[in-house]
Amino acid sequence: MDKTEMERRQILMTLGALSLTGCSGGGGGTSSPSVPIASPPPPPPPPSSTAVLKDVFASDFLIGAAVQAGQMTGGSIAQSLAEQHFNSITAEFEMKADIIAPNQGSFDFSAGDALLDFATTNGASLRGHALLWYRSTPGYFTIGGASDVRDKLETYINEVLTHYAGDIYAWDVVNEVVSDAASDTYRQDEWFQAA
Question: How far apart are CA 170 and CA 174, in angstroms?
Fold first, then answer.
């Protein structure tokens, strides 16, 4: 086993141990004193050198998370972890329609641009999320006939994609279109009704 493979395994074991130590040993109820409660195994020792996740897994996949612009300022732990370990970030809310275009014909890219600035400064790629999500759709989008709704959606998407052309490596286009109800294939929301 080469050194890189050993570092990868050590990181994964450490992450696994961290998730175990976050668990409580008790179930919150009463327990019999004669039944011992097993404690989690001790975490493995830390790596001999500080391993940076984005470097360790660079040839395998990107490392990142969905983040908010506010988490990436002020020296927070989230900011520090993202700066050190992430080579990809996903906009959690800042690139959704209710943030970018809460009113028809008015666009505000400042929150998404803040994430783009953070990603660019830290050598990370930015994933756009999401062009269309039923829970972040301003009401004006789905008012009118099917052709009106389509025109508003196309205008919005063209504005957003033009603004971020060349800066976003991937877009989540439609989020959660499949229904939670077993009786329906598609979510029966305003978008479905407007189609």
Answer: 12
